[in-house]
Amino acid sequence: MDLTALEKIQYGVYLIAAAFDGKKSAFAANSIVQVSAQPVKFAVSVSKQNWTYELIEKSGCFSISAITMSAPFEFIGKFGFHTGKTFDKFANTEYKTFESGVPAVTQYAGAIFELKISGKIDVGDHTVFIGDVLNMERLSQETTMTYEYYHKIKGGLTAKNAPTYIKR
Amino acid sequence: MDLTALEKIQYGVYLIAAAFDGKKSAFAANSIVQVSAQPVKFAVSVSKQNWTYELIEKSGCFSISAITMSAPFEFIGKFGFHTGKTFDKFANTEYKTFESGVPAVTQYAGAIFELKISGKIDVGDHTVFIGDVLNMERLSQETTMTYEYYHKIKGGLTAKNAPTYIKR
Questions:
Q1: Which of B2, B14, B94, B149 is most buried, most CB within 10 Å of its CB?
Q2: Chain A residues closer than 8 Å to B120 by CB
């Protein structure tokens, strides 16, 4: 199988955040799609190795922030290549907290979404969560960064835990 | 809730195809993501109103074709705004048939994927299918069309059955 075929799938760049029991974390993600219009539902794939996974599982809620084209590589890297278990990703990060207690990164975000989990499916080393949108806000007119742009122009790498990681 | 926030999610343009009992069909889709790397799995959201939905359900297999930037609007429209129940979308369309019997559109395709369903989750008017990749082929170097490009530059509309359809 030609793994380079996988490069033909288009994605945006997002941050997924969650909180539980006073702890909060976030990670950079690309595998996000809207799966239903009425009500608005999203599917996201999250690695079981990811610390935010535990916070999503325990709280039953998470947020999505769509990251704009102007976000610097370092900003995305902060969320992509550290674990929230030992590193406070929210220090020096602009964010808001929804009424449910879910934090959402607002810095370099074109839109933010608050979601409550309504279903999930185990796909091996990842779980696909279905989230019902409780709230959504558009924060800017700027276009969301494509994963291709992050990868090719910004020189961004893919974390080993990502569902789209290709071992080369 | 500000529905325009939904415009901040990035997608590509794809065709999903399936066949059962001598009938085959395909439809234009954007809600596709890779959800696992080893093995490679995809999630796709399919409307229960869609005729291809029945063929996917009955055969347990489907294909994805990533559509290139050079595809004309009319080509995509052929798959997006007709039902395969009464209209042969494969007439005058270049495609190949995988060993499993699944057809995949090769015309204007940068890559094609053959998938076998390994899970699904009901999200109301849509079902999210998890597909394990059996085969994948890269057919060109061309970039996959983004949904934003299809929408803004090509003037493409969203079908009412689509998970990302917004009633205005």
A1: B14
A2: 121
* Contact predicate A129/A46, CB 8 Å: yes
Counting Cα atoms < 13 Å in the Cβ hemisphere of B149 gives 17
In angstroms, the CA A85 to CA A89 distance is 9
Q: How confident is the model at residue B167 (pLDDT cuts 50, 70, 90)?
A: low
* Residue A108 pLDDT level (bands cut at 50, 70, 90): very high
Nearest CB to A12 within list B10, B41, B112? B10
3-state secondary structure chain B: CCHHHHHHCCCECEEEEEEECCEEEEEEECCEEEEECCCCEEEEEEECCCHHHHHHHHHCEEEEEEEECCCCHHHHHHHHCCCCCCCCCCCCCCEEECCCCCEEECCCEEEEEEEEEEEEEECCCEEEEEEEEEEEEECCCCCECEHHHHHHCCCCCCCCCCCCCCCC
In this prediction the ipTM stands at 0.90
Written as six digits, the tokens of B126 are 């849509």
End-to-end alpha carbon distance in chain A: 14
Q: Shortest Cα distance from B42 to chain A (angstroms)?
A: 9
Interval B92-148: pLDDT, tens: 899 999 998 999 999 999 999 999 999 999 999 999 999 999 999 999 999 999 988
Indicate the residue of A5, A11, A124 with minimum beta-carbon distance to B36.
A124
Chain B contact probe: residue of A35, A133, A145 with most B CBs at under 10 A = A35
Gap between the Cα atoms of A56 and A27, Å rounded: 12
Q: Select the residue of B36, B123, B145 nearest A119 (Cβ to Cβ).
A: B123
A164: helix, coil or strand?
coil
